Automatic annotation (TrEMBL):
Species, as recorded: Corynebacterium argentoratense DSM 44202
Domain Endoribonuclease L-PSP/chorismate mutase-like: 6-149
Protein's UniProt name: LysR family transcriptional regulator
Organism domain of life: Bacteria
Pfam families: YjgF_endoribonc
InterPro entries, A to Z: Endoribo_LPSP/chorism_mut-like, RutC-like_sf
Signal peptide: none
Length: 152
């Protein structure tokens, strides 16, 4: 089954690639890898939420925003090389705009990680960092970047 077929089976549509908000490209290929820029939870060109996780944004909602950001990252991969070329998810880096004393970053970024498992199965298992930060662009609660391996 191709990744496109799996996405249809799951009822998941990749969004349009989010327009960069600064001087960068959404994704870049080097050899058999694609690296995405950090993606925030844009939905139809609008940021889904703003604020700090553990204050204005609940950890449960942030989990879903991490999932949206990961879909945006996959959209960037798809636009560059085609989603069906992905053979493995290598790494996810997730940033969580965290309220003071919030330590649930790993659970929040599970939104992105678990999505990769749903879509890619065993090939979705990846290395990961989940980092708490003071601020993210546009006051986003989360940001996700991915590195994937692709077929030649």
């Amino acid at each position: 089954m191709t990744t496109s077929e799996r996405l249809r089976e799951l009822g998941i549509s990749l969004p349009q690639v989010a327009a960069p908000v600064a001087a960068y490209v959404p994704a870049i290929r080097t050899g058999n890898q694609v690296w995405t820029s950090g993606q925030i939870p844009f939905v139809n060109g609008e940021l889904a939420a703003t604020g700090k996780v553990g204050a204005e944004v609940s950890a449960e909602d942030a989990y879903n925003y991490a999932r949206i950001a990961a879909l945006n990252a996959l959209a960037a991969v798809d636009a560059l090389v085609g989603i069906d070329k992905v053979t493995r998810v290598l790494k996810i880096v997730g940033f969580v705009a965290s309220a003071e004393d919030f330590g649930g970053q790993p659970a929040v970024i599970n939104g992105a990680s678990e999505l990769m498992g749903e879509i890619f199965g065993d090939a979705g298992a990846h290395a990961r960092s989940a980092v708490g930060v003071a601020e993210l662009p546009l006051n986003s609660p989360v940001e996700v970047e991915i590195i994937v391996e692709i077929a030649p």
